[in-house]
Amino acid sequence: MKRLFRAAAALSLLLAALPARAAEIRASVLFIGDIMVHEQQLRAARQKNSDGTVTWNFSPQFRRISPLFQDQFTVGNLETVLAGSKRGWSGYPRFNTPDSLADALLNDLGVDLLTLSTNHIFDCGARGARRTTQILDKTGILWTGLALDRTPRNDAVLCESDGLLWAFVNFGYGSNAFVKSSDVHMNVISEKSIAEGMRNAAVFHPDVTVACFHWGTEYTYRAGAQQRKAAEKALELGADLVIGTHPHVVQPVEVCFDKRTKRTGAVAWSLGNFISFQRTLPRERSYILKAEFAKDDEGHTRLIRLSAAPLQVILTPVRGARLAEVVYAGKGGSFNHAGLSRTQLKNIRAAGDAVLDFLGAQTEPDEKGFYTLWSAENPQKLPKPRRRTPVK
Question: Model's pTM, two decimal places?
């Protein structure tokens, strides 16, 4: 069961929505990386209908991995805008994608929340950013990272899912376009904004607080000093998870224990590209991060497991174009690999192994296809990379 709120919602409504306390509550959340739509993806999604109209269908991009997302609260990073057809559909460097992308993310993957504080959010100006939020509102996907109307700067988004109250805040390093607007602003990374965002989340006493950052240097495999500074600030102020996007390649996951507060926190420095047409290795591979929490009968919540499902984007010929498809690159679970050759499957598995080795994941997956990175059952066993890069 999911209930979604903005932080501006009445606290009494939130508390009334929460279920009665049980002996122990367990809940989880999934995180996916950059959602990009390049020109080639637009061409593959374009469909001319019998009545002469043209529509864009993005569902085939995700058809092979939907089992990974069943009944899971899911957060993604939207690295494009939904600015409308009048602005013209386009890929890099100025993204603008048809609204049907939001429908595919909701209906095929069950995405619940998108982070918008990215360097591309103003690719079509302030109006494009505003329209993106309107389409997401209409679709039923929550968003965070922007300030406009009744949503103040550095606001938190709240969600009740599986008996836990979750708070999400989002900050980015800046945008590619300079936009002068009195009513649309992105949340920009600074000590002040992080502190304000964490305070906005803390007002509602969430069980789990997640700070999402769009940061770092593109195509590098290690976190930089500015990333570490921002992550440390968020963890210091109460974040249970820090999730990073933007480098377009996978960066490591770190688990830390605060002896003073007895809290375990985790940082995923970069999830990589969830979907894109970038083909330079290893930009075509990423992973889903799954974070599981438990809340005891005294109301204390703790992180109990981090796990990863490796992914790769492959290209499939379709109607004179090449369809970018996200495929599961592990060896667990039951997934749609129909039509893929043995050679393709071997290459996909090799890409997945490279990601898992880079993250330091365990070598065997669970029944759903996720590989353990860290578990409270063996808290001293931290993710230890077996490879220096996520390249096979």
Answer: 0.95
